[in-house]
Structure formats: C-alpha cells, structure tokens
Design a protein that fits this description.
Length: 358
C-alpha cells in the first residue's frame, strides 16, 4: 500500500543568517505578495545528514563526494594489503568505468561529478575489484552492487547519475524550502573589531569594520517521505525502515543549518510539530500562511492558530484526514495524539512500519 509521512514544523529563529545567497544576504522568497525569509531545502538536508551521523551506524550511511576512487581504494587495500595505493586506485577506476562513471578531465583523482555512495556499496565494489570476472559479467555486477545496500541517507535523498540512469536511486523524501509565516525586512549589523596589540594613542580607530545582513522569523517547515518507496529502497528490511523513519523525524525536527552560527547562535527548537500518515497523497499545508500573519505580539502562536484552522478546513473540504497523526508542542490534541518528542519518534516509526508491511 502507498503510505506518506508528512512532517510539519513551526519554528522561530532570532536574528540569524542560516542560509546565504551568492551575495551573502539571507535567502528570501516572494509568497502571498510579501517578502518572506527562506532557508533552502538543500541547507536543511545537509544539517539533517550531519545529525544522522550521531544516531546511525556508519554502515547505514553514505558519502556524497568527488573522491569515490579513494573511498573504494581504501577498502580494496583493507581486503588486500599487498596492493599499493596507486594500483588500487587504477583497479577501482576500471570498475567504475563499467558503470559509466568516469574520472574528471581536470583532476584525475576525482570523479567527473559528485557521486552519492553508501559505505556498503563501496564494500561491494571493492570486493568486485578483487574478483576475477569476465568483462560482460563485470558491468552487470557493478550495476547490481550500486543498486543494493543503499544507505539510509541515499535511500531518502536519492542519487542521479546522468551518464548511467541504471544506477539512479529515486529519492523517497522531499523537503520544502522553509519560509516565514509573515513579512520580513532584512537588517544590517554594523560591527567593528579592535586590534588587541595596538596602543590606543597610536591607533584610535578599529582594526576592521564590516556589516552582516540578517533577519529573524517564525518559519513553516515541511517534508514528506514516501514510506512505501523507502521500504523498497531499503530492501524491504522493516527494522532498517523503522530506524530510518525515526532518525529522519529526529533530524528534521532538531537539526539546524550552520550558516553564521558563530555570529548569531540561533539554536532554537520548534514550538509546534505535527507528523501525519496519509494513504492518499502528501499534503503541504503552507497555504495556511499565504496571507501573511500580522502581529505586534509575536508570530509563533498566531502561526500555530492559522495552521490548525487551515488543516481542519482542508480535511473537511478537499481530502480525508490522515490515517493517524501525532502532535508535539503548541498544537491542539484535536489534530493528533499529543506526545513528547521521544514517544513521538517511536510511535510514528512503529505505526508507519506496521501499515506499510501489512
């Protein structure tokens, strides 16, 4: 059966610059006719992947890297210590060629494009590199090695290889760009730095002067996971699926992008979370904020109220309610079972696994 896990988060961040554009300004977006603060999905997914490393075993994870030849060569040398590094890398490059993954034209030690490779897939390729197979067998075996043993992050976020679609991995998760529930205006911090070793009489001015652009906002964040697809990508391993769902929820709820954190220390937690399981389709509820929230007494509570009202209306007018729903923080219990974070992570994962493995 199809099963979608939707995660909705309302979170306030103080003055910060979590995600910058090419000019150093905080990213923004036009929505509902007003300028909103924005944090890109790529930025938050990177923060999530960093948190995965704290809770998942290294053999459940992957690396997105140009250094795939080194990564697999390390494992070749572990299995066959007599190989010197140069020969191991040449051997590995030949294996990747069978999958139409070539080295960079400018840098022979790197691949042409970033490649998402799980630790277990690197093990598979190292083993193949040391086997004595005929050419026609190798190509098929390499493709099989790259389609098996997806890491949790690889199964969630996918792999696209333009040169060989046979080794693509469809992403099971989609993450929306976070946007503010209200209008924002970027501001500037004018700062100076003192030269600690200068003598005041000799150098009355600052050692340097600069500006940093920032904003503060109450954000609406949304992500969805096609649980049935993730189950297939994880080789229908129900225990792996349960861990993956628990850690996806944990990381989406708790992780923070690292942009300018040394300057702003914007380490906040959400004020409201809803995780829903749906059997019809994913449902982003950002329309709750198409009309920007207006307030002089904070945006968090008015945002929670607008979200709750909109969710109830959408369920009544357009689609069925979720088959199950769980809430945390300021959201009312009529939107779902109210739990603390630990229980929510456990209950959602167990509920989803039970439904998708029926």
């Amino acid at each position: 059966m199809k099963l979608f896990m939707d995660i909705h988060v309302i979170q306030t961040v103080p003055p910060s610059c979590l995600n910058r554009d090419d000019t150093g300004s905080p990213k923004t977006a036009e929505y509902g006719g007003v300028r909103r603060a924005r944090v890109s999905s790529q930025s938050w997914k990177h923060a999530m992947r960093l948190m995965f490393k704290e809770y998942l075993d290294v053999n459940e994870l992957s690396y997105r890297t140009l250094k795939i030849f080194d990564m697999v060569a390390d494992k070749v040398i572990e299995k066959a210590p007599d190989y010197n590094r140069e020969d191991a890398i040449l051997l590995v490059k030949e294996v990747f060629k069978k999958a139409k993954v070539e080295q960079s034209k400018k840098h022979a030690d790197k691949s042409e494009a970033l490649f998402f490779l799980s630790n277990q897939q690197a093990e598979n390729l190292a083993r193949l590199a040391l086997e004595d197979l005929e050419d026609k067998e190798v190509s098929k075996a390499v493709v099989q090695a790259l389609k098996a043993n997806n890491g949790v992050d690889l199964a969630l976020f996918g792999r696209m290889v333009a040169s060989n679609p046979d080794i693509n991995c469809d992403a099971s998760a989609q993450v929306a760009h976070a946007i503010s529930t209200h209008r924002i205006e970027n501001e500037y911090d004018y700062f100076t730095a003192v030269d600690d070793l200068s003598i005041e009489e000799e150098h009355a001015g600052a050692g340097m002067i600069g500006t940093i652009e920032y904003n503060s906002a109450t954000l609406y964040r949304y992500a969805t996971v096609a649980v049935h697809e993730l189950y297939n990508q994880l080789s229908k391993d129900s225990l792996a699926l349960e861990r993956a769902l628990r850690e996806f929820n944990r990381a989406f709820i708790l992780s923070m992008p690292r942009g300018k954190q040394n300057t702003f220390a914007a380490h906040t937690l959400p004020c409201a979370v809803m995780v829903s399981l749906r059997v019809d389709r994913p449902l982003n509820l950002v329309d709750a904020f198409e009309r920007a929230i207006e307030s002089t007494e904070g945006f968090a509570i008015p945002s929670v109220e607008a979200f709750s009202k909109h969710a109830a209306k959408v369920y009544d007018d357009f689609c069925t309610k979720p088959v199950s729903s769980y809430v945390l923080g300021e959201l009312p219990s009529d939107l779902g079972q109210k739990l603390n974070l630990k229980d929510l992570l456990d209950e959602v994962a167990k509920d989803a696994v039970a439904r998708v493995t029926l």
